[in-house]
Amino acid sequence: MQAVVLERHGDPDVLRLSDVPDPQAPDGWIVVELRAASVNWHDCLLRRGQYPQFPLPRIPGSDGAGVRRDTGEPVMILPSLWWGDDERAPGPGWEILGDRTDGTYAELVAVPEACVRPKPAGWSFEDAAALPLAGLTAHRALFARGGLRSGETVLILGAGGGVAGIAIGLARLAGARVLVTTSSPEKLDQARAHGAEDGVLYTDEGWPAGVRELAGTGGIDLVIDPIGSTWPQALEALSPGGRLVTFGATGGSTVQIDVRRFYFGQQTILGTTMGSPRDFDALLRRLETDPTWRPAVGQVLALGDVVDAHKMMQDRTHHGKIVLSVR
Questions:
Q1: Helix, strand, or coil here: 236?
Q2: Alpha carbon distances (Å) from 194 to 39, 191, 295
Q3: For 122-158, how does the pLDDT look when each residue is reduced to its tens digit (9 = 90+)?
Q4: Is the pTM of the predicted complex or chain greater than 0.85?
Q5: Phi and psi at residue 209, to the nearest 5°
Q6: How far, in Å, are 2, 102, 282, 305 from residue 109 at the CA level?
Q7: Parallel, antiparallel, or unpaired for β 222-225 and 153-156?
Q8: 86 partner at 20 to 30 Å CA-CA among 39, 197, 301, 307?
Q9: In angstroms, rounded to a whole number, what is the distance separating the alpha carbons of residues 39 and 63?
């Protein structure tokens, strides 16, 4: 089969489309003939060597959709492997597909049978490939960790990213009011088109005050933060008693906050990562409430254009999910 192989860490140019042996499925596993795979920021971090504990060579890719080789059923892949039975946090054996186990940047992938779900009716393979990692992350952040309820106001930071874009849609499906931050007027217009009520540019100094003005007297109940370095501003925008859910460090892994302001405000900071199979099933049940909803797919490229896909992701020139067509 053909697959994208990462043999050394570096810039996007280290990714190579190569001929490799077909994967073998041990007992309890299946082989999926992929039709589409999507690109995640996690893939870029793996490529750059920010997860040095994961051995090379490796076929990257966490998200995928295709056809089961044994039954012909169209499926999408749950990339959360061996989470365990504790819903509070993953167990010690947990991993993301594409880290220690070869992933979805390929014509074929072998996965545990427990890690596939039927492709939603009416969805394209590209739609289905765009959902799993970002959708699972967004759903757990909003609901299992963030406790979002109908009628609340949620602020989603960095609305041009894949997780943030899906979080906008899921929050609206739940009856929440959605505000965002993003980097440009064009991306703000796109966020509005996907369901955000309004937002501010995080390039503007003092944007938390702008968010509070948009929120009005009800304030911000929940902030979803995939950036990390924005904790001080997120807490400033958050109402007293509000919740901040964080799951990324794209802006840096170290931050300082005003501890007194935090505890006098009775605020809560919650961490999250991906999600369990039960979270994924809850996501799929939520999507049944609106069969017309789809994840925002910004670009569809060929598998052989993976270098361009990673450059777009790295340069943040995209909006929505980047999907690789494997046909």
A1: helix
A2: 20, 5, 9
A3: 999 999 999 999 999 999 999 999 999 999 999 999 8
A4: yes
A5: -65, -40
A6: 11, 7, 25, 19
A7: parallel
A8: 39
A9: 7
How far is CA 136 from its chain centroid?
7
Kind and range of the H or E element at 126? helix 125-130
Which pLDDT band holds residue 159 (cuts at 50, 70, 90)? confident
- Beta bridge partner(s), residue 321: 297
Of 30, 22, 29, give the one whose Cα is nearest residue 2.
22
Average pLDDT of 89-110? 96
Coil vs helix vs strand at 286: helix
Nearest to 244 by CA among 216, 266, 264: 266
DSSP codes, 253-279: S-----HHHHHHTT-EEEE--S--HHH
CA 99 distance to own-chain centroid: 16
Q: Where are the beta strands (DSSP E) in the chain?
A: 2-6, 15-19, 29-39, 63-68, 74-77, 80-81, 95-96, 108-112, 116-118, 153-156, 177-182, 198-201, 222-225, 243-246, 268-271, 297-302, 321-325
Query: What tokens appear for 263 in the block?
Result: 């505890």
- Please provide the CATH number assigned to the domain covering 137-271: 3.90.180.10
CB-based contacts of 205, cutoff 8 Å, min separation 6: none
The CATH number of 2-131+295-325 is 3.90.180.10
Domain residue spans of the chain:
2-131+295-325, 137-271
| Cα–Cα distance for residue pair 79/132, rounded to 1 Å | 7
* Fold equal for 2-131+295-325 and 137-271: yes
